[in-house]
Amino acid sequence: MKANPRRLAAVPSFSRKLVAGAPLTALAVLAACVPAPPQVPPSVPRPSPTQQPQPPAPPPANWQDAPQTPGDWWMTGPGTAAFADGLVTLRCNRQAGTVTLALPRAGGASSPALVVRTSDTARTLPASASATGLSVDIPARDPLLDAMAFSKGRFALEAPGTATLYVPSWTEVTRVVQDCR
């Protein structure tokens, strides 16, 4: 409905402003009547239940299904190769006619023995133990070296009291063996 301007002209100016602002005033009054939202106390973080550490996964039934030990082979010199920053080292000793297989970080092994598993061979070798690790001298013409070089993808090195290493049988293994023959 439209306001009649003649009718408003008879009303004093203060009243005119009051009448014109009445809808806004009514809304302001109604808004003041609405209660404020309730204050919710800040939530206190609940302590998370302590999780028990998961036991290590059991070793696979077949060692060839185990994940490969992370790392790469590289040639560190003539007749010498290292795997995973020196976790495993192969070194040719031409004068003695042997290849030395060393596990420098296996110094805590409980007995001086090293088990080498390949896709077709498994052999326990007597090792020399020292504070710096285990080492085994293998004759350069030993078929075990060929089995390590030509194993299907990897070979395993087990020292009692240490984690088993699943090492890839890359060309560096073959190069060290060939340098010694």
Could you provide a short overview of the structure?
Residues 1-31 form the signal peptide. By secondary structure, the chain is an alpha+beta fold. The protein has helices at residues 5-9, 13-20, 22-33, 143-149, 171-180; strands at 73-77, 80-83, 88-93, 98-103, 113-117, 122-126, 128-130, 133-139, 154-158, 165-168.
Structural account:
Keywords: Signal. This is Lipoprotein. It comes from Novosphingobium clariflavum. The chain has 181 residues and is α+β, with helices and mostly antiparallel strands. The chain has a domain of 112 residues. The chain has five helices and ten strands, in the order αααββββββββαββα. A six-stranded antiparallel sheet has the order 1-2-3-4-8-7, covered by helices on one side. The mean pLDDT is 81.
Protein topology:
Elements: H1 5-9, H2 13-20, H3 22-33, E1 73-77, E2 80-83, E3 88-93, E4 98-103, E5 113-117, E6 122-126, E7 128-130, E8 133-139, H4 143-149, E9 154-158, E10 165-168, H5 171-180
Give the tags:
single chain, 181 residues, alpha+beta, six-stranded antiparallel sheet, 5 helices, rod-shaped
